[in-house]
Amino acid sequence: MKKRTLVRLVATSCAVVLSCSLLHAGVLPGGSEGAVSYAKGKNSKAVATVSTAADPVVLTGAVIQGGNVVVSAQSPAPPAADDGLYHLLAQNVYENGALGKEVAQAGVGASANFSFPLAKNSANSNLFKKFTVCVKRGGVLVPVSSSRYLTNPEVTATHTAPRAVAGKKGLLPAAELLSGNSLKQLGVKQSIYNVLLGSICSQGGIPYTYNGKTYQFSSGMIAQLDYAFSRMNAQGIQVTAVLLANPGDPSIVHPLSRGGPAPYYAFNTAEAAGVEKLQAVASFLAQRYSGAHGRVDNWIVGNEVNARGDWHFMNTGDLGIFTGEYARAFRIFYNGIRSENANARVYMCIDQQWARASSPKYFSGVSFLSLFNDMMTAEGNIDWHVAMHPYNVPLYSPMAWNNGKYASHSQATPYITIQNIEVLTDYLSQPKLLAPNGQVRSVLLSEVGYTSLQGEPLQAASLIYAYKQAEANSHVDGIIFSREMDAPSEIAQGLANGICGVGGAHKQSYAYFQFMDTPEAGAYINNASAIIGADLNSLLIRR
Question: Which 8-state DSSP code applies to residue 441?
């Protein structure tokens, strides 16, 4: 499929970064349910695997209660132990087996409870740890349980303001127009901004002490984030931030990713220095953007992560390794963010390639999502959500309502576009995919766009159709269109996705976007129906 260059709004000196993606994907078998373990592998310090073998001890909970961590365990057939004790280890995300620090003991039995200090934001913090039960045999510790992470970091948060929910209509803003009020005039309810962690962590100016160590974050980059988030908030817009490991600070980049041919890399979950810095920057950003400097309600960990060859580079074709490392990174960001902002949502991210045939550079969205869910459930189910990019296939196809052979309404569809977005929400409605509260996880369509190069009427009709399709699905919490203004680099590739031209002139789609969620929407829906050749409302799939 055609190579695409997307211009996304980011915090850089010019506020715009060009990056490329080849849209191909592969199908690998989805993971089976069971406990997650990590074993040594030749290409990584830790290889993620899913085991169905029963452990003698089952961890049933790891939660924060007051200033303590309480870990609960059960064992129908208690294992033998030299000293008659369970030894609970607190481990870093990259530690396995009997590595780690012993934090509590309990007598061997059918059940056990361990309690010890959380010690948040100290050298002895257990906020980001996973916990494993061991017993002594022959004088050495032997693991007898799988591991479990804390599942309620939000109870420690000092920022508890309600989310700024205003509506589903979103737009990627033009950097040069942020100083004005164009977004407010358009009635934009949501917007998105890239946060380049490599750039933030590679420069100084803002000291931040976390877990007993002081880090330096870029004052220039943070000033740009302050401005962008505050400007969007001032116009009544709910902000989503995308966390990306761009080149700049190698310590936050995974060892299997460094020097790779991609703009963004997998996060470093294999080395202590990188893990500690990611914990610090997650806490710093969530703390800063929960109030006076601007408010971010949604955080996306990585971009189109399953497209690992171009958007989340890691030099491995092993789905288990790749997903395991991402799941660890997700835990770091989730605990760091939610421990500061209790009502923030944290999203994983996939592209539109759902069940497409395999490729050496891509994992299908369904295989990646399935294994990610298995791993998160096995180590403590948390309130993660799904960001997805339901682009047309091919990208320059202007008709959102007709993707022909590429998009079907079955789980075997090669692609998920806005036309068959119910495939994703139906998949997430399965009992094993539900959030801890029993609800379907939030879906945020965080990037999608339609070109006007084959006619402005087709683009206009596609925008209002896509919005109404998202509006009709109760599990979709937002759709963010790319973009406010055309990008010259995209036009050269057949993608004029802006509702304004390069010079700012309004296209036909401008008014369609402006009024699609207002009482005046009816006239635009009727016009779109005439363009489509069918009643737009009859094409919508409700969920």
Answer: P
